[in-house]
Each structure stands twice: as C-alpha cells, then as structure tokens.
Amino acid sequence: MDANTQGLATLQMLNILENFDLREMGFQSAAAIHAQVEAKRLAYEDRARYYADPHFSKIPIEWLNSKEYARERAKLIRPDRILTPAYPGQAPSHGDTTYFTTADKDGMMVSMIQSNFRGMGSGLVADGLGFMFQDRGELFSLQDGHPNLYAPGKRPFQTIIPGFAVKDGKPWMSFGVMGGDMQPQGQVQIVLNRVDYGLDIQAAGDSPRWHHEGSSQSMGEDPPGLGPEGVLHLESGVPVETRKALIALGWPMGRSDGGFGRYECIEPRQNGSDRVYAAASEMRADGVALAY
Hints:
Order of helices and strands: HHHHHEEEEHHEEHEE
Strand content: 15-25%
Mean pLDDT: 91
Largest sheet: 4 strands, antiparallel
CATH superfamily: Gamma-glutamyltranspeptidase, small (S) subunit
C-alpha cells in the first residue's frame, strides 16, 4: 500500500536487508536480528520524516524505495555496535485491527485489513447501518512544517497495510500482520522466513519475532519518550544465546509484551493442472484457516 500508509517501510527494510547474507548469519541468530532491527530503525526514521498524504506533501518515493539509497543506508549498519543516533536520509532537492485474506476457485485473491483505531473508533455509528466510524485522524501531526501536519481535506498518516507479494510476476502470498507499527516489521520477518530460511507459510508465522519501538521522532502509534536506541522486544522463543548476544551489543531489552503482531496468509500452488491453496493462521491471533 502506498502513501498515506506505512507500506513503503516494508520495502525499505527489505531493500536494506538485501545487502546482508541473512541465511549465512543463521536463523534467529543475534547477527541476523541485529541487522533487521537496524534496518527497521533506519526505515522508520524516513517514515517519520517523509510519509504523509502525497496530495499535500512531495514525498521522494522513488528515491526512498531505490536500491542505491538502500545500499547507502546498509553501509551505516555495523555488526559490532548499535547505530547511534539514527537519522532520516536527506532527500535530494495495539489490538483494534482485523485482517483477512481469501481466495476462490478462479485464482482471485484478496488481502484486506480494517481498523477503527482506539478500540471503538470515533464512537459514532452510522444510522441504520450498525458500524462505527474510524478515528485515525488522531494520527495527524500538529508540528508546524511536518509533512503530516493536519489540514482540511488531507488524509492522515496511517499504519494499515494489507500485504500482497508476487514472485516471478505471479501471485505468491496474500498476507497481513496486524499490530500498528509492528506491521512492516512483521511483514519483513515473514518474507525473510520464507525467502532466506525456507520456512513454509505456517512455520513462517509461528517463528519467534522481534519488535522494536522508538525513533528520533514520534509518528503514528509509536510510543514517545524512548532513548536513542529505542527498546527491543523479543518473544520467549528466541534462543537465550541470541538474547545475551544482543544485550552485549547494547540493545535495551523490553519485556515480551505480546506486541508481536497477528498474521494470516494464503499461498497459491499448482498440483498438476489443478489450482490449490495453502493457508495459515497463527497462535497469537483468534484467527483460523478455512477451506471450502
């Protein structure tokens, strides 16, 4: 999903991580997670600096999404230390979201996400229709000069990004990861688990995750008041040796607070001349994979 959402952050993180051999680093290793979290920090600095409604702000999307820029940003990542401080690049002149994906016999696939924000949204119900209006206008900035500054007729920055991936020009995964600022981080981890570590769509979602919070600027649903390195949260399934090595690198560790997103996915496959699907839900969500 393009602006005014945070979809570009997923692509920026993946572009940066293309410059590292994550398979060689090892699945759930400290080196691999360190590189991923640093890529997230760099991408989210740009997210806070540039993302907004493109009808009101000139966003350098092609530059932000370029492989050349990603290579420049990747050079900032050191294997033996945390990048401090992290800054955005200089351009040339928690549980109110629902996701589902579905597919039919003809190959049509849909990736859909919806959120009222703040639980009950605005609290206003459409007369006779029974649904509440969302409340995502809260994600505007009131800082003068900010590209996401409130203005009449303008769409606020928002975190809702249903995912869809293609491979060799063909549909590959219709998927989503619910969870505010966790969405790009979770989507990247799903793609890495599939591409770099060879996990199937169920194992890719069941794998332990990391979640990083904090950047130099608050944006959207990010919590304010964190230090320059932010806070890194690891699920309990991350190996103890990996956790110790990340702490030794200097990452401030937060508790495993359950903020690791909730994932669903459908993958099309061929069985001879027949079209079949693989589907996955996960243990973190009250979701289910159903066939009909």
